[in-house]
Amino acid sequence: MSILRTNQIQDTSGNSAMMINNTGLITTSVKHAFYMYRSAFQAVTNGSGYNQIQFDATRVNEGNGVTFGASARYTVPANAGGLYVLHAFGRLETATDGNAAITLKLNGTSIGTTYYYNEYYDGMDVSLIRNLSAGDYIEMAMSNSVGATVNVGGFDNGDNAYCWGYRL
User: Fold this and answer.
1) 30 pLDDT above the threshold of 90
2) If we measure between CA atoms, which residue out of 78, 82, 38, 89 comes closest to residue 59?
3) Which of 71, 72, 106, 116 has the least C-beta neighbours within 10 A?
4) Are 45 and 56 in contact (CB under 8 A)?
């Protein structure tokens, strides 16, 4: 029987890769997690198909994979491939009833969609587990068929258009 006693594991360059405290809690230097959200309103045009959500802010960006603006996405960094838990949430800023949808896309192709009949400021979400490779990217898009262009994003008792994920 052997006992290994250590509080730190380093990579070959001497950088800390893993820490173990006296209660057994193991932490790593980069966890590969993200949370991007839309802090200002973005219009989702009625009947125009899916509108990519142009995230403009982040609360978590471990591994620096988040991009903002017209091509807002999370890109899996080099050496960060693996199994990821992914989630997207959005709410149309309208009390008008009508069809709506939210989708998560992997490399531009929908991998999970929730179709919804929007009623008074309802939110919709989709959650998935996917195996991702370095360079893969995740985007979120929403559609609206309530009869008018409506907004998503902004802040109303919390974020109301966001996408997050983390590597298991």
Assistant:
1) no
2) 38
3) 71
4) no
pTM of the model: 0.84
The set of residues, in sequence order, having a beta carbon less than 8 Å from that of 167 and lying 6+ positions away, is: 31, 32, 33, 80, 82, 83, 84, 132
User: CA distances (Å), 144 to each of 41, 112, 160, in order?
Assistant: 15, 17, 16
> What are the tens digits of pLDDT across the range 102-126?
999 999 999 999 888 877 778 899 9
Beta bridge partners of 67: 73
125: its two tokens: 């979400």
DSSP state of 148: S
- Distance between CA 2 and CA 33 in Å, rounded? 35
Integer CA distances (angstroms), 98 to 88, 118, 126, 129, 163, in order? 20, 5, 19, 29, 23
